[in-house]
Amino acid sequence: MMSGGGGTGGAGPAPGAGFETVAGEERPAEIVAAIARSRNRARGRFRTTFVLTWVVLVGALVGSLALGGKIDGDFILKWAPYILGGVPLTFIISIASIAVAVVLATLGSLGRLSGNPVIYGIASFYVSLVRGTPLIVQLLFFYLALPQIWEGFASIDLVVLGISALAFNYGAYMTEIFRAGIQAVPRGQIEAASALGMHERTIMRRIVLPQAVRIITPAIGNEFIAMIKDSALVSIITVQELLWRAQEIGQSNFRSLDTLLLAALVYWIMTIILSLFQDRLEKRLAASEVRL
Amino acid sequence: MTTDIRDPFAKPGALTPAGAEPIVRALGIEKYFAANHVLRGVTMEVYPRETVCLIGKSGSGKSTLLRCMNFLEEPTVGSIEIDGLRVDADPLHGRSREHREQIRQIRLRAQMVFQEFNLFPHLKVIDNLVEGPIRVKGVTRDEAVATAEKYLEKVGLAEKRDEYPGRLSGGQKQRVAIARALTMEPKVLLFDEPTSALDPTLVGEVLNVMEDLAHEGATMIVVTHEMAFAREAADRVYFIEEGVFVEAGPPDEVINRPQDPRTREFLARTLGEAHAHEGGAIHVPEDRAHLHGDEGEAHVHDVTERSFQQHDRL
């Protein structure tokens, strides 16, 4: 492998003729093009088979249920508008909850990074409490237990109550995401800013947080997708969103299979669409000229 | 307590105005990292418009000393004086408001250029430069931009004004970092191995800028492995080993005719490496030596030994 000179094949030109003439002028380009073609073909075959697999699976699922007489198309069509009418509320709850959770997580993460033991204590208590108890327990606590402490809670709008509980829960998980994002900003950035003479607060606001936001944006997208699904839990406190409506119609007509299938399908489609947005956002961040 | 300490090696530089007092004093600096005694009582005085190079092995304490000068590391014992402002090390009460404010004033006087550039990636070049003056010195944006443009011009990167740092080469990044330090209009520039993270082909452009600054009479303290730069630009060179100065003086003395065996050994090794790579570039950063290894095995031993030393670093 260390041998010098270009004559690797016996049929090549005389030694010293130079590398470029060994294989002729055009052949390397042809080989490269042929490799690319074959790779594209393989990729195309993979994609076609992949899509076909999905079509077969979905077709088999729906077809077997429909043909077996287990689901009733007319019933679904009749109630679909009412059930789908819950989608906007599902969205509103998810967006509002994530928004409030982002605020809680920002405060929480600053608390978790604070040198003040009281602030640090409060923040870590919040995270521990929330992460150590089931979301459904927290939700029921907001709904059933808090009014026992203060009756005013009973008169709070259920949507608001549901948003509060979801935000309270997600805020704690996102606190840890934000904390990790802030800590992922290289130490050299903080050193450079303090060497300029900046105050700690300015460093956090102008140097660290803007970079942390970029780091955690994809993670916030993930949390939002998870929130869409977890928002279904507020149906147990009788908020009339997608799942509540599906359950209500299903149970009163003894056709839960049809309505829950419909609800599941809608959640699925929503998360698929959001995942696509998420992918695009991540690609754009990755391709951004603002490289971190 | 450290008032009477003087640096025996201190001597006004070629450009130092007559009768000037030292502008930088690091007096009796000791630094421990936990039980590790990194600086063992170092005193250094630098006169205005002097360029001083700090040389020594990895782990000798040279970067730590530089970082003590702007309190990125708080010395365990000693004091730092820059342009008349004296701050005593106070590791026990280092977080008090007055102490922190004094440190900030020191940093305004002594700006640092880092090995890893540490430009702010989310800000355009121009905003990297004006962020400090605006947020720290309270300069108006227009004023800051004017100053920044002047120094960008000086480092030859005026046309990169609106780029993001991610789109610049390493050498360009470091020149922007130098312009960022200059835009703060400090009294002293501290360089912490400014070319060690650079591709060999990009070292020259950064050293040229630094040499220009030195010849124009900027006060500079430079931690470096670039002996050619030290020879060309330094008024004085300090050789540090195991946290004490072994030898110091004009580059002609310290680099060309070292007296102490430790200095000789260090230089033999450093310059020997440079010669081994001659024909390519003299500036071969430690971990890149193997890229030049067409001659193969001769370097393998060297490289391993050097990476070994790098692990000894603090």
Give a verbal description of the structure:
The complex is a heterodimer of chains A (292) and B (314). Chain A is 75% helix and 0% strand. By secondary structure, chain A is mainly α. Chain B has 10 helices and 10 strands. Chain B is α/β, with parallel strands linked by helices and 314 residues long. Chain B has helices at 62-69, 97-109, 125-137, 141-154, 170-183, 200-216, 227-233, 251-256, 261-276, 298-311, and strands at 24-33, 36-46, 51-55, 77-82, 85-88, 110-113, 188-192, 220-223, 236-241, 244-249. In chain B, a hairpin with a 2-residue loop joins strand 9 and strand 10 (244-249). Chains A and B meet through helix 7 and helix 8 of A and helix 2 and helix 3 of B.
Contiguous low-pLDDT stretches of chain B (5 residues minimum) are 278-314
- The rounded Rg of chain A comes to 29 Å
Number of strands of chain A: 0
**Span between termini of chain B:** 29 Å
Q: Any low-confidence stretches of chain A, pLDDT <50, length ≥5?
A: 1-13
Write the CATH architecture name of the largest domain in chain A.
Orthogonal Bundle
Rg over C-alpha atoms of chain B, rounded to the nearest angstrom: 19 Å
CATH topology type of chain B: Rossmann fold
List keywords for this structure.
heterodimer; A: 292 residues; mainly alpha; MetI-like fold; 10 helices; 75% helix; flat; B: 314 residues; alpha/beta; Rossmann fold; 6-stranded mixed beta sheet; 4-stranded antiparallel beta sheet; globular; disordered C terminus
Describe the structure concisely:
Chain A has helices at residues 27-67, 73-84, 87-112, 117-131, 135-149, 158-183, 187-196, 200-230, 242-253, 256-287.
Tell me the layout of helices and strands.
The complex is a heterodimer of chains A (292) and B (314).
Chain A: H1 27-67, H2 73-84, H3 87-112, H4 117-131, H5 135-149, H6 158-183, H7 187-196, H8 200-230, H9 242-253, H10 256-287
Helix pairs in contact in A: 2-9, 2-10, 3-4, 3-6, 3-8, 4-6, 5-6, 6-8, 7-8, 8-10, 9-10
Chain B: E1 24-33, E2 36-46, E3 51-55, H1 62-69, E4 77-82, E5 85-88, H2 97-109, E6 110-113, H3 125-137, H4 141-154, H5 170-183, E7 188-192, H6 200-216, E8 220-223, H7 227-233, E9 236-241, E10 244-249, H8 251-256, H9 261-276, H10 298-311
Helix pairs in contact in B: 3-4, 3-5, 4-5, 5-6
